[in-house]
Model the fold of this input.
Amino acid sequence: MNRATLATLALLATFALLATTAFAQPKHIVFLADKGLPEGVTLEETAQYREALASLSPEAIERRTNHAPDGFFIDYDDLALCSDYLDAIEATGAEVVHRLRWHNAVSVRADERALEEIRALPFVTRVERPRLLTFARFDFGDPRNAKPDTLQDRHYYKSYLQNSISEINRAHRLGYDGSGVLVGVLDGGFDWRGHESLRDLDVRGERDFIFDDATTANEDDDVPGQDDHGTYCFSILAGYAPGKLIGPAFGASFLLAKTEDTRSETKVEEDNYAAALEWMEREGARITSSSLGYNDFDDGDNYAYEDMDGETAISTRAANKAFERGVLVVTAAGNEGNKPWYYISAPADAFGAVAVGAVTASNVVVSFSSRGPTSDGRVKPDVVAQGFRVYGAMDGDEDDDYSYSNGTSAACPIVAGVAAQLLQAHPHLDNVRARHALLHSAEGDGEPIDNERGYGLVNAAAAIGYPNIEIDGWQTLVHKIVPDLEARSESLEIHFAEEDGAWRYRRFDEVAPREYVKRVPRSPFGAAIYFAFTYGVESGHARRAPEAGWYVLPSGDVNVHREKDPTKVPAETPTEYLPFAATDAGIGEAALYRGLSPAAVYRAPAEWNAGENLLAVPKDLTRRLDRDEFYLLRAETNEGVLGSQIFYLTDLGNWHAVHR
Done:
């Protein structure tokens, strides 16, 4: 070995020693008193404001504009940290790791001498250790021994159940795959270029928040298997290998953040998570998915249950800040349900986060799924998805390995994928209304079930079909997608009334196949609007949404709610309007389903019923009624009204009963 080689090896050894020493120094978060703004100036006058504006992508500006009631905003939290303060901190010998704008803090690696000098700086308010998060680690099964599911579609193969239980495959048939939506994924690393189900996805950017580079796959300093978990979760969200695996949002675009500290194998320091979330927000992500959660550690540096209050943990506060800026934050609830901790973990306690619990393919809550409530009494998790025997990509020597595994970290990307399908279907939605649609279309039917399931099993088709609104002056734009593949598009109507007014109806304008929009006037006095939809299907029958009760848009609200009691309707609602509550009976007096005055009165034998001789309705009545509309036909004899039934008049002049 020559002298030059020896010198090179010595130099490399020195660099390695320095790097090891630097990483051996504990990390601390330094909180600052302010951002060093001159007195008497407005934010818009500062260089920090201009820098903050320049740092936002066009997608981030559009998302913030859509989210904020008064339009686009940049606030104090968006401003960069004071450069003079950072210079003074670095002058102590500390290494700056992450600049956390939203927290007005900086994470550093420093020895105790430097920390003492930092604590003495006049602009420093406190110094603390970052708390630790953990991935819900689990062992993958052997993919070669995994038996096929009993029920499967040939395209989804073993991923069929995890898709079908939440009607994701139905949303795919309607054309929704997350296209046009930017999703950020935070995890331990991603070997996305090395797996057949991921390599063709649209990855817009990736960052390693451990080694500060742009590589999220395993590197030389990573422990073996570092990127297994992230590769698996990413494939559940977006993998696409027909005949092997299909994820909900394979058409979306992605930002990938590697946030796990490999030297601890399972731990993620909260400043990494917070820094990654700030980066994704600036880049324009509309959704983030993170399979992270707080856990107990032997070093005693733990949160307590009392800290799960939606505003204490740094990761939780970062999630809140992202949500305030229009990002839909989806995160795993945690795998502590069968452990002493039991409860959900940060950042799942964040106010705006969609915390995801785990169920089996039979929709039974799995024992390990973390439970609520938060320490301040809010229901958590928010929804559940399959998190037991979930099929995904496996990182390894082969590019076509797959396996089953378990965890709320597997359920989380399913819900994030459904959210991407929802935002593709309704791009005008901000994160508040998107979150509302996800929760209120789940199996709880608008109400939380309990602190094991939240609002229940997430449903992609139902979320896409849940009505939502845009406000345009005094007009309300009602958006509706009919996920019913049998629907006759030309027949969709909305029936609506203010809480103190008469009922009206409108035929919807179809803007795309099964996508509709209609302007409905809003009262200047702010009255609530009650409404329902009706439409015909190819079989000639009629359907109604909701099947019972009403959708309600309360005064001053941007979200559509449910009123399940069909008798709670505006005061002037005529009896004839109450649909699907009557019994099967003969055909007699005909009154328009829309609630107009009776068209005519006809007497018929009491033995007539909904299943016999429907063409016996007098021809003159048939001629006077429009096709593709709904009517309430009420049977009446000399003894009085026997009952009523909703009928649908087809183009051929035939009557079809609507059975409920």
